[in-house]
Design a protein that fits this description.
binds zinc ion; globular; alpha+beta; 8 strands; 36% strand; single chain
């Protein structure tokens, strides 16, 4: 099993890795713990952020972390299965992007993901957590703020 290491670098918008679609994370506990450790240390070093996705750390796999109700969550292979028609415009920032962007996000979403143990979890998240999860899942699909938003300082 390949062990991933993070070199401490946050990849920036324009890097090839932030434009590509990511691979599914296989159901292997060692691998998932390895990825969780990397996500934990990266979020710890960037504690102002509320979420991060593995491609931002140079790893092209479907894994994200976010802070929800003060707790750090780890999601593997997350998919949005439902989203509200009610939309909010949010003002977002990203470690990989300079400046802030206005982006349209659904008020609530349903997400299916796998946890560290490989168990399927289904959650419903409302704004603002829905916004953070949508942002991180976008990274797994090669999408960054400048691709879908407009700069706040224009
Ligand atoms: Zn981001």
């Amino acid at each position: 099993m390949q062990e991933y290491k993070w070199d401490g670098k946050i990849y920036e918008y324009g890097s090839a890795i932030l434009k590509q679609k990511t691979e599914l994370v296989i159901n292997d506990k060692q691998l998932r713990l390895n990825l969780v450790e990397i996500l934990k240390s990266a979020l710890y070093l960037n504690s102002k952020m509320q979420g991060l996705a593995l491609p931002q750390l140079g790893i092209p796999l479907k894994g994200i972390t976010c802070i929800s109700n003060g707790k750090q969550m780890f999601m593997f292979n997350p998919i949005i299965t439902k989203q509200s028609k009610i939309i909010r415009v949010s003002n977002e920032s990203c470690l990989s992007v300079k400046g802030r962007y206005y982006v349209k996000r659904p008020e609530y979403i349903n997400v299916v993901y796998e946890d560290i143990e490989g168990r399927k979890q289904i959650i419903k998240e409302t704004y603002p957590h829905s916004r953070i999860i949508c942002h991180e899942i976008d990274h797994l699909n090669g999408i960054c703020l400048p691709d879908i938003g407009s700069p706040t300082d224009k």
